[in-house]
Structures are given as structure tokens and as C-alpha cells.
Design goal:
Blueprint (H helix, E strand, L loop, with lengths): L7 E6 L25 H21 L4 E4 L21 H13 L5 E5 L3 H4 L2 H7 L5 E4 L1 E2 L2 E2 L2 E6 L11 H17 L8 E4 L7 E6 L2 E7 L9 H6 L6 E8 L5 E8 L12
Parallel strand pairs: 1-2, 2-3, 3-4, 7-8, 8-10
Antiparallel strand pairs: 1-11, 5-7, 6-7, 9-10, 11-12
């Protein structure tokens, strides 16, 4: 065994959308408990933060954190700012910093989110971590010989049976890029953006390759989603354990929080 090699834990998170009313909101940024109009969203913010802290605490120590973009929500222009609780650049970056910092991961690999949301704010966020963090558009972190392929955006589907298609297509493109000697041949392909957790493995030659979309760390409650979307939303994160010999096991952590359960209205 190579000196210093050990089983390493990798945690992957995506789509925090800090600054949005249902984005990840550390306690010091949460809504005013004395405001009746804030009550629903404040309850969700507390539930999300409590769940996140519990899961992260159970997964420590974390050797590498993968952050797949949309760490901040931006100015919420399409909803005229109505969903935004903290529109300022500094507040949103500070919120995202607290979420990531809570993991205590010594190494952080990040990719940019959708520019509509993040503009160049994620550069500021990354710089706050100094040498611990690196950010790019498309990255290939390697852990104990296992290569991750991480990028934010992937196609979505409006039908349940179509949801795995785009991420498996991205997996095939990586195979073709690697065969043309222009990308690393990945073992685990991860994408964010779509706010649902799907995927599986495919055999590429004799190699088993995992490809999946990550759950989001933004809850249900966007104006756009309520009015325009029907598909299931998954709130959570994923972790991987990679042995010194390069064997990998993983598990997903997806929550159904009490305040996210719809109820009937009595008439």
C-alpha cells in the first residue's frame, strides 16, 4: 500500500441556491420569526439546516467535497425578486461559504453553476477558501485512482422514464472524448442543475461506470417551480467511499421534510 493512502470519503452537493427563500440558509440568515408572512419559509429553512448538519456530522471526516454549482440564487430577476430573501452578492456568498465550511473538508473541487444565477459570484466564493478550493467549468478530480467527471448542467426531462437519458448520454460522450485522448476516462460522472437524483451504471467494455444527477440542496417552493413544473424534486446529497485499491461504494441521502408535504384545503 502506498504511504499515506487510506479509504477516502467524498461528499457531493449541488444547487444550494443561497439567498432564495427555499435555498440553504444558515441560522444567522434565516427569516424573522416575528413576521407571520415568513413563518412557512422559516420552518423549512430550519428543517433544511438541521437535516444538513445531522447528515454532514454523520459523514465526517470528509476528505474531499465536490460542489456542483448554483451555490447562490442571484437576483431572482424572472420572479422580480419575490423569491429572494437576501439579494446582495455579499450575503449570498457568505451564506454559501457557511454551508460549505460546515463540512470541514480540507479539499474542495467546485464547478460553476448556471450563469443566470451565479454570474461570477462563485469565483468570490471559491477564493474565500484559499488553496483548499479550485473551481472550473468541467473538472476531473481523482481520488485513489477513481476519476470523477463533474459539471453543473445536464439536460432534463418532463417524463419520468426520460430522466436518466441525459446523464447516460453525458457518460457516453465522456467515453468518446477519452477515446479521442482529450478527456480523462471517468469512473463516476456527476451532474447537478436538474434538482432530481437519477442514474445508474453502464458497462463500457469491461468497466463499470456510474453516472448520476445529484439531488439539490434547495427545497420545494420556487415561484417558477410551483407554476411551471410537475416533476419530483429531490433534496439531499451523495457520498462516496473509495478504498486505497480504488474500489468505490456510495449512498444517497434524500429527505422528505415535514413542511414540504402538501395537504388538502378544506372547504
Amino acid at each position: 500500500m502506498a504511504k499515506g493512502r487510506k479509504t477516502k470519503r467524498v461528499v457531493a452537493i449541488s444547487d444550494m441556491h443561497c439567498g432564495h427563500r427555499v435555498g440553504m440558509t444558515p441560522p444567522q440568515f434565516q427569516l424573522n420569526p416575528d413576521n407571520e408572512n415568513d413563518a412557512k419559509w422559516l420552518t423549512l429553512q430550519k428543517e433544511q439546516w438541521k437535516w444538513y448538519c445531522k447528515v454532514i456530522n454523520s459523514l465526517r471526516p470528509i476528505d474531499l467535497l465536490l460542489v456542483l454549482g448554483d451555490c447562490v440564487d442571484g437576483r431572482n430577476e424572472r420572479a422580480a425578486g419575490r423569491d429572494c430573501i437576501r439579494p446582495g452578492r455579499r450575503d449570498q456568498v457568505d451564506m454559501a461559504f457557511e454551508v460549505i465550511q460546515f463540512t470541514a473538508a480540507p479539499k474542495i473541487a467546485m464547478v460553476y453553476g448556471t450563469r443566470y444565477h451565479v454570474a461570477d459570484w462563485e469565483d468570490d466564493l471559491c477564493s474565500n477558501f484559499g488553496d483548499r478550493a479550485k473551481i472550473g467549468s468541467h473538472e476531473w478530480p481523482e481520488v485513489n485512482g477513481v476519476v470523477f467527471d463533474i459539471k453543473h448542467k445536464v439536460g432534463s426531462s418532463i417524463v419520468p422514464y426520460g430522466r436518466p437519458t441525459s446523464v447516460m448520454r453525458a457518460r457516453l460522450w465522456n467515453t468518446m472524448w477519452s477515446e479521442s485522448a482529450r478527456q480523462p476516462n471517468s469512473d463516476i460522472l456527476l451532474r447537478g442543475h436538474v434538482h432530481y437524483h437519477v442514474g445508474g451504471f453502464s458497462m463500457c467494455g469491461g468497466k463499470k461506470v456510474w453516472a448520476m444527477t445529484l439531488p439539490a440542496l434547495q427545497g420545494i417552493g420556487t415561484e417558477y417551480g410551483a407554476e411551471q413544473c410537475e416533476g419530483l424534486v429531490d433534496f439531499g446529497l451523495v457520498h462516496f467511499d473509495i478504498t486505497p485499491g480504488g474500489s468505490c461504494s456510495w449512498d444517497s441521502h434524500v429527505a422528505v421534510l415535514p413542511s414540504q408535504v402538501a395537504v388538502t384545503s378544506q372547504y
